[in-house]
Amino acid sequence: MPRLPLGTAVSAPERVLLGRVRDLLERDLLEQSVTERLARAAFAAALLWLAIYWALS
Fold this sequence. Notes:
Shape: flat
Structural class: mainly alpha
Number of strands: 0
Order of helices and strands: HH
Strand content: under 5%
Largest sheet: none
């Protein structure tokens, strides 16, 4: 996952939010709930359909 450059100014609440998002994205399949897996699969499918639509238009 891309990280912010070292010199970037980030406030404390943003730093906490970025940490939580990073932790959520780096969890392995056994730690994820079924809902998280379905949400990721739906997002990937939506991006695929968007790419197909864009390529055919």
